[in-house]
Amino acid sequence: MLIKLFTALFFASASLPSFASPVFNASNGHYYELHTFTDDWRLDWSEAKAFAENLTYEGGSGYLATVTSQEEDDFLWNVLGAQGSFLGGFDVSSYDSNLDQWQHQAWQWVTGEAFSYANWLPGEPNHWRDNSSLTPDNEDYLMYWWQADSNGGRWNDTNLNASELTDTGVRYITRGLVVEFTPAVTSHVPVPQSVWLFATGLILLMRRAGNSTH
Questions:
Q1: For every residue of the chain, which 3-state class applies, written as one string?
Q2: Which residue of 4, 39, 45, 205 is surrounded by the most CB atoms within 10 Å?
Q3: Which range marks the domain in which residue 22 is found?
């Protein structure tokens, strides 16, 4: 975990994109928006979820991004540059007194979609030192790590505010959040047949009137 922490601090200082407006993903027709934390503005996962759900775009309400395919995963990682960001996955964990450790139960998406695709880093999700002084809250929340492993794994479980206690104080390992928008589909209202008949008749009358003037 220390290696992961130092890696996070290194990449936090790197220049990564921050999109102020939604970016379109042609493969699924959804839009994605990257919001970056600042020294004066930082959210925990629950606050990020509420923030996302208060946004709208193209008639669709926002939500923390759900990553349900390799194609979507690649888009967020390579196009949006979402490294180090909160995603819309969460877990309900419980303490197993027989094993003396916390257990992950079932990861879920905020939208209720099936959690059938995953791209964890090796060894994740690991509930690293849950409820200890180093990780006071359970690691029940999904984030992109700062770099992928050699096999392309990118996901990491983290605690509510993505913090770790170090010798110099609290360190935050997320840099922002990804909002996803599913545009509202506007269905075409069918035109009654009587209107079509009236319009057709009117066009014919206009043509006849035009011909009679020649």
A1: CHHHHHHHHHHHCCCCCCCCCCEEECCCCEEEEEEECCCCCCCCHHHHHHHHHCCEECCEEEEECCCCCHHHHHHHHHHHCCCCEEEEEEEEEEEECCCCEEEEEEEEECCCCCCCCCCECCCCCCCCCECCCCECCCCCEEEECCCCCCCCCCEEEECCCCEEEECCEEEECCCEEEEEECCCCCCCCCCCHHHHHHHHHHHHHHHHHHHHCC
A2: 45
A3: 2-212
Question: What total of structural domains would you count in the chain?
Answer: 1
CATH of the domain at 83: 3.10.100.10
For residues 127-160, one letter each, b for 16 or more C-beta atoms within 10 angstroms of the residue's C-beta and e for the rest, the string is bbbbeeeebbbbbbbbbbbbeeeeeebbbbbbbb
Per-residue pLDDT of the chain (214 residues; tens, 9 = 90+): 444 444 444 444 344 555 558 999 999 999 999 999 998 999 999 999 999 999 999 999 999 999 999 999 999 999 999 999 999 999 987 777 888 776 777 899 999 999 999 999 998 988 766 555 555 568 899 999 999 999 999 999 998 988 766 777 777 889 999 999 999 874 444 445 554 445 445 555 555 555 555 5
53, 46 in Cβ contact below 8 A?
Answer: no
